[in-house]
Amino acid sequence: MVRLGMRAAAIGAMVAALLVAxxxxxxxxxxxxxxxxxxxxxxELICGIDTGIPGYAYQDSSGEWQGLxxxxxxxxxxxxxxxxxxxxxxxxTSKVRFSVLKSGEIDVLIRDSEHSFIRNTxxxxxxxxxxxxxxxxxxxxxxxxxxxxKEMDGATVCLLTGxxxxxxxxxxxxxxxxxxxTLLFDRPEEAFAAADSGRCDGYTDDGGSVAAARSTMKxxxxxxxxxxxxxxxxxxxxxxxQGDEAWTRLVKWVHFSMLEAEVLxxxxxxxxxxxxxxxxxxxxxxFGVEGxxxxxxxxxxxxxxxxxxxxxxYGEVYEATFGTKGLGLPRGMNNLYDHGGLQTLPTWH
Length: 349
What we know:
Oligomer: single chain
CATH architecture of the domain at 134-233: 3-Layer(aba) Sandwich
Radius of gyration: 24 Å
Number of helices: 14
Helix content: 25-40%
Low-confidence stretches: 1-26
């Protein structure tokens, strides 16, 4: 009787599964996102970036914004509005960047900002994607005669206020019984100038920002990087307001689309050719030939193909900003996962 009962239950479960499988698919509900709706209505993305730091966000000689974070702003605008030019850039200091986002003055913050527990919980912000992995790095003048961080006892370093940098130094001082002093600034260019003028013995920030700082010194060769980093791994990336999950998903998948393009070998140069009658299922999904992935995000199905055509894949953007065509910083942790790096992405299936 027990076996008969078990068999009957199993048959019942199979029948139920078949009935569900055979039921007509429910129509995809429209994506609901106040932020996405506002951007579409406005016809422009408002993106919070740094006030000016090479590599991440800076204005070139013609006044055009350039940098890794800038490219991400343009990619989001391209996905939604069909053009990477439909962006208004708002320079934000480290002190006010999160309050500007929370107040609704900007749609998204992409400002070389570290993802952290407090920002995700106490500040009520979502952290969609990491576009740059790094660690807190120090550079000092060669004339100081030090080669390790512990030898900086009594020295002063320039850094930005409103960051985790100062807390990391305080923790390092306490753990190593040293006293590295700090001089705080609101803007990167102010901190760079102070370090170059001799007001500080060194400068500290994430690795990318320190490479940027070194490039602005009057004599970059007079500065060296110390081998130690502190504060653990620093994942930098985008921030959105909590409560708008659809918007956060879109920002996240814009990042993943740039990684996916690199994985598939799609570049700005070959995108048009690869989009012509693709047979590879992954490439077909990427270019919107099948899958309706754009509609699931609240944009059209050509969104990801448009990003790589207009802006490039992640590797191309890195090379232009931090790599061989930019600050000369080795890709390191920012390589794809199969090249020894930390950049990885979910499947598009």
